Amino acid sequence: MISFKQRDIISILHFNKEEILYILDVTKRMEQTDYSQILKGKVLSVLFFEPSTRTRLSFEAAMKRLGGMVIGFAESGATSIAKGESFSDSLKTIEGYCDVVVLRHYLEGAAQLAADIVNVPVINAGDGSNQHPTQTFLDLYTILKTKGILEGLKIGFLGDLKYGRTVHSLAYALAYFGAEMYFISPPNLRMPNDCMEELKKRRVTCHEAESLQGIGKQLDVIYCTRIQEERFADPIEFEKVRGIYRLSKPMIEGLGVKDDLKIMHPLPRVDEMDESLDGTNYAVYFDQVRNGVPVRKAILAAVLGATE
């Protein structure tokens, strides 16, 4: 029997295919059935050291819709950390107030460090440019709902693949489902070597390119990401790639893409995706956002033992 009770959600690499499918199945149940009281009396602590709209609010909405309560902060400057309190002491304090922690942090490895410090489940809501596992679950759920399958798809990842933690996590997960992957980026924003090595070990067929030309018509899904200015140490390097890709309806149709192509984006978007796509059948990124609530309901319920 699969159990997520008291389990940390740190990296998608910690889960096998059956466990991933289990969360997707629980998510489907969350959409079909009223579970509004299953986490009554439970408290979620959301600790966000980096800006967030969708992840933080969808976790809060998910917890409240399951009958639970939410505490935490979206700006660490308003906490005792601003007075010099250590990360460890803050977590040990907060642990006494809650049943589960959702953490977003600008440093890679922060979520694992937090999990090592506290005895309640820790859910990684993004640690630097490393991973974002709950986004991966909602991305997979979106693909499953819009394409009807997960197995054997051709997926194109476009944009900032070096710093794009959502790309890293999703690529690892799709490896379980026999995906063929196309990584389209400028040379200085390619997928990290360690990611490519991991995919190679999993025998994933991977292609790298700098343009969608000649590739777009083969794809079942395009996963677009923004160029993340905040991750660049050198502003000059960012300016070199600003606006390098811009998806639009005419551009996509000019590639001769499949009629059932789906375009995804973890959002926020800046200038890489034109609003002309919003009303097309290709665009599923706002559905993707909405899927965040049932997916995070499933994850919260699972780690708190309410799905057993």
Automatic annotation (TrEMBL):
Carbamoyl phosphate binds at residues 54-55, 104, 132, 135, 267-268. InterPro entries: Asp/Orn_carbamoyltranf_P-bd, Asp/Orn_carbamoylTrfase, Asp/Orn_carbamoylTrfase_sf, Asp_carbamoyltransf, Asp_carbamoyltransf_Asp/Orn-bd. Pathway: Pyrimidine metabolism; UMP biosynthesis via de novo pathway; (S)-dihydroorotate from bicarbonate: step 2/3. Residues 7-144 form the Aspartate/ornithine carbamoyltransferase carbamoyl-P binding domain. Belongs to the aspartate/ornithine carbamoyltransferase superfamily. ATCase family. Residues 151-302 form the Aspartate/ornithine carbamoyltransferase Asp/Orn-binding domain. It catalyses: carbamoyl phosphate + L-aspartate = N-carbamoyl-L-aspartate + phosphate + H(+). One of its GO terms (molecular function) is amino acid binding. The gene is pyrB. It comes from Kuenenia stuttgartiensis. Heterododecamer (2C3:3R2) of six catalytic PyrB chains organized as two trimers (C3), and six regulatory PyrI chains organized as three dimers (R2). This is Aspartate carbamoyltransferase. L-aspartate binds at residues 83, 165, 226. It comes from the Bacteria. GO terms for biological process: 'de novo' pyrimidine nucleobase biosynthetic process; 'de novo' UMP biosynthetic process; amino acid metabolic process. Keywords: Pyrimidine biosynthesis, Transferase. The lineage of its organism: Bacteria, Pseudomonadati, Planctomycetota, Candidatus Brocadiia, Candidatus Brocadiales.
